[in-house]
Specification:
There is one protein chain. It is built from 15 helices and 2 strands. With 296 residues, the chain is an all-alpha fold. The chain has a single domain, classed as Orthogonal Bundle (Farnesyl Diphosphate Synthase). The chain is globular. The model has no long low-confidence stretch (mean pLDDT 91).
C-alpha cells in the first residue's frame, strides 16, 4: 500500500521540522549535536510523527501546532533506539541501514546523545512556540509523553523484555511486555494529538485510546514477523536478532502463520474503532494499514 498524498506531505513536514529543531548551531559540544542528528535525521519510517499528524488532521488541529509533539515523539523513539542498541542491552551494530550510534561515535557519546534527545523532547513540549499559549495543553502533552516513555511505559517494557530473554512466557505476558515497550509510545502519538481537543466527546476519546492500543499491538506483531521474514537490507538492522537473543516474540510463541493472522485480526479491530469518525478518518485508516502491511 502506498502512502496517501496527505501522508507524504506529513512525512516531508516532519523531516523539515526535525532538521530545524536539531540545528547543529544550537549544540555545544558539536560532536554531541552531530551524534544526535546522526541518530535522527535522514532515515527512519517516521511512523510515530506521521500518526500524530494523521490524528491531528482528523481532529481539525492546525498542522503547525502538531510539529512540536510530532518531533518530540520521534526524538524519544530515536533515544530509545540508541540505548537499546548499546552493548549492555541488545548490542547491535546496525540500525536504519547504518552503523549504530555507539559504533559511529563511541559508547559514551551514544549514551549522552540518547539522554540529550530525551531531554530535548520535553523541552519542545514545554517551550516550543508552535504549541500555543495554553498551559493546560502543554501540561497534557508532557504528561502523556512522560507516562508513555517512563517506568510504566517504554523503559519498563525494555526492562521486562530483557528479563524475559531465554524464558518461557505465555501470550498475556508477551502482550504486557510489548504494550509497554512499543505500544505505549504509539498510543501516546494518538493522545498527543487529542490533547489539543479537550472538548472531544468522551466516546470519541475512548475510541482513539482503543485505536492507539490496538495499532500499537499490531505494529509490534508485524515487527516480530519481519524479523523472521525480511532481510537485513530490507530491515536496515540485523535480521534474526530476536532469535539470536532468545527473545519472546509472536512468531516464536504462536508460529509464523498464526502470528500473521493475529496481526490481521488486531489491525481490523483498530480500524473498527474509527467508525465514529466516518470519512474524516480515511487518511488515518490508510496509514494504519500501511503500518501493519509494511515490508521493513
Amino acid at each position: 500500500m502506498s502512502p496517501t498524498v496527505t501522508d507524504r506531505s506529513h512525512r516531508e513536514r516532519i523531516e523539515s521540522a526535525l532538521d530545524q529543531r536539531l540545528s547543529i548551531a544550537d549544540f555545544d559540544p558539536t560532536t554531541l549535536g552531530q551524534a544526535m542528528r546522526y541518530a535522527v535525521l535522514g532515515h527512519g519510517k517516521r511512523m510515530r510523527p506521521r500518526l500524530v499528524y494523521a490524528i491531528g488532521t482528523m481532529l481539525d488541529v492546525a498542522i503547525e501546532r502538531l510539529d512540536a509533539p510530532a518531533c518530540a515523539v520521534e526524538l524519544i523513539h530515536a533515544y530509545s533506539l540508541i540505548h537499546d542498541d548499546l552493548p549492555a542491552m541488545d548490542d547491535d551494530d546496525l540500525r536504519r541501514g547504518q552503523p549504530t550510534v555507539h559504533i559511529a561515535y563511541g559508547e559514551a557519546t551514544a549514551i549522552l546523545a540518547g539522554d540529550a534527545l530525551q531531554a530535548l523532547a520535553f523541552e519542545l513540549l514545554a517551550s516550543d512556540p508552535s504549541i500555543g499559549d495554553d498551559p493546560g495543553t502543554r501540561a497534557r502533552l508532557m504528561a502523556t509523553l512522560a507516562h508513555a516513555c517512563g517506568p510504566n511505559g517504554m523503559v519498563g517494557g525494555q526492562a521486562l523484555d530483557m528479563a524475559s530473554e531465554g524464558q518461557s512466557i505465555d501470550l498475556q505476558q508477551l502482550k504486557r511486555i510489548h504494550d509497554r515497550k512499543t505500544g505505549k509510545l504509539l498510543r501516546a502519538c494518538v493522545l498527543l494529538a487529542a490533547a489539543y481537543r479537550p472538548d472531544l466527546p468522551a466516546e470519541h476519546y475512548a475510541a482513539l485510546d482503543a485505536f492507539g492500543t490496538r495499532i500499537g499491538l499490531a505494529f509490534q506483531i508485524r515487527d516480530d514477523i519481519l524479523d523472521v521474514t525480511a532481510s537485513t537490507k530490507q530491515l536496515g538492522k540485523t535480521q534474526g536478532a530476536d532469535q539470536a537473543h532468545a527473545k519472546a516474540t509472536y512468531p516464536a510463541l504462536l508460529g509464523l502463520d498464526a502470528a500473521e493472522a493475529y496481526a490481521e485480526q488486531v489491525s481490523q479491530e483498530a480500524l473498527d474503532t474509527l467508525q465514529p469518525f466516518g470519512t474524516a478518518a480515511a487518511p488515518l485508516r490508510a496509514l494504519a494499514q500501511l503500518m501493519v502491511q509494511r515490508n521493513h
